[in-house]
Amino acid sequence: GLTEKLNATFKKLRGKGRLTENDVREAMREVRLALLEADVGYKVVKDFVATVTERAVGSDVLDSLTPAQQVIKIVNEELTKLMGGGTARLSMANSGPTVVMMVGLQGAGKTTTTAKLAGLMRRQLGKRPLLAACDVYRPAAIEQLKVVGGQLDLPVFEQGQGDPVQIAENAIRHARDHGSDMVFLDTAGRLHVDESLMDELKRMKAAVHPNEILLVVDAMTGQDAVNAATAFDEALGIDGVVLTKLDGDARGGAALSIRASTGKPIKFVGTGEKLDMIEPFHPDRMASRILGMGDMLSFIEKAQQTYDENQAAKLEEKLRKNRLTLQDYYEQLQQLRNMGDLSQIASMMPGALGRQMAGATIDDKALAHTEAIILSMTPLERENPQILNASRKKRIAAGCGLEVVDVNRLLKQFDMMQQLTKQMTRGRLSKMGGGGLG
Ligand code: GDP
Ligand code: MG
């Protein structure tokens, strides 16, 4: 992943307090590659790298972060900003039914997304949507909308293969008369943008004055999706984009390029064929995806949020007095567990103890053993591990269904941790909890 690459890049500058232009330039080479691999357009990458470089050069490396994390933090923030920052909503009509026109190329996912989105609006906002079959050129398209509508128990308005503009108008009238407060118009697509399609969509737009024109694009098509977005926006004007098929292996760079080249927000993403697989678009998650880091950034934040400052202070106090007990160790492990995926989180914890724990508790199973052993000890034993003689160890092992060697392994780990923590008690631990990402 990008973090590893950047870590390698930064190996030589550990301990530096401030990022120089050269450091950043080297890091940006990796970031550039990651973006291009994610299918972000060349021009967008170039502008982006310039922005980040300007911000990163001369910035102080936070004590709680490595230089690599610092750069990733800036890159992530700027990517998120570029994609709109927060989650965009659909604009709703003040009176009468809200009209949402779904447009896009053939196969992008319009019909599926029409049903998904209507279902989401009903689920989340209690709306009563109507679906309208305005893709009249293939009888199969009408049938498909009826099928997906039926699966979600949503009403579908259709008038066979008539004039799509008239059907759209009739659907809105029908919605008004039957208490539907949203109308989703499933329109026709073509393999390529062409004039007759755009003419039809423009006529429809002029006739029904939609509250939203949503362009549906297939994330897997990368630059083609970007071109489609530009073409539809220029010819028709769009209000937002739905990016489908994100469950595929597309890195999602299209999201960034679409936003950068049209200025229009991605509003929703499709994440699977099933009809509930649609979500509001989260720029921060997409940023992580583009950088190829999974949810690592949320792990960094989570680790810092979950870690309780008071407990950090108490722990620090104990460490100063060199009185770290197995009970403390147990509580630390519990906190790590509360955060979710342990090995990832522990290694991301911006503190030396986190990194040590990552080494000591590589997986959940090892952690479960460690916990079971500590729980089998008496409070006195937890506070004073030195009293653990052979017979006590045997009793503990039997109590948790493990072997004496397991108990010994834990004690050795704990001992190692104590040795290491002794070396870092001079003020460093306080950064673990209170540091924050800045
Ligand atoms: P339209 O031609 O634009 O109306 O596209 P359709 O709605 O017919 O979708 C084309 C194909 O893409 C269908 O097989 C859908 O099941 C599939 N599809 C749509 N959205 C998604 C998605 O988010 N994930 C996956 N895996 N498939 C999708
Ligand atoms: Mg369709």
Automatic annotation (TrEMBL):
It is found in: Cytoplasm. Its EC number is 3.6.5.4. GO terms for cellular component: signal recognition particle. SMART domains: AAA, SRP54, SRP54_N. It is an enzyme of class 3 (hydrolase). GO terms for biological process: SRP-dependent cotranslational protein targeting to membrane. Gene3D superfamilies: P-loop containing nucleotide triphosphate hydrolases, Signal recognition particle SRP54, nucleotide-binding domain, Signal recognition particle, SRP54 subunit, M-domain. Keywords: Coiled coil, Cytoplasm, GTP-binding, Hydrolase, Nucleotide-binding, Ribonucleoprotein, RNA-binding, Signal recognition particle. Residues 265-278 form the SRP54-type proteins GTP-binding domain. It catalyses: GTP + H2O = GDP + phosphate + H(+). CDD domains: SRP_G. Its main location: cytoplasm. Residues 312-339 form a coiled coil. GTP binds at residues 104-111, 186-190, 244-247. GO terms for molecular function: 7S RNA binding; GTP binding; GTPase activity. PANTHER family: SIGNAL RECOGNITION PARTICLE 54K PROTEIN SRP54, SIGNAL RECOGNITION PARTICLE SUBUNIT SRP54. Part of the signal recognition particle protein translocation system, which is composed of SRP and FtsY. Composed of three domains: the N-terminal N domain, which is responsible for interactions with the ribosome, the central G domain, which binds GTP, and the C-terminal M domain, which binds the RNA and the signal sequence of the RNC. Belongs to the GTP-binding SRP family. SRP54 subfamily. HAMAP family: SRP54. Involved in targeting and insertion of nascent membrane proteins into the cytoplasmic membrane. Binds to the hydrophobic signal sequence of the ribosome-nascent chain (RNC) as it emerges from the ribosomes. The SRP-RNC complex is then targeted to the cytoplasmic membrane where it interacts with the SRP receptor FtsY. This is Signal recognition particle protein. It comes from Dysosmobacter welbionis. The lineage of its organism: Bacteria, Bacillati, Bacillota, Clostridia, Eubacteriales. The gene is ffh.
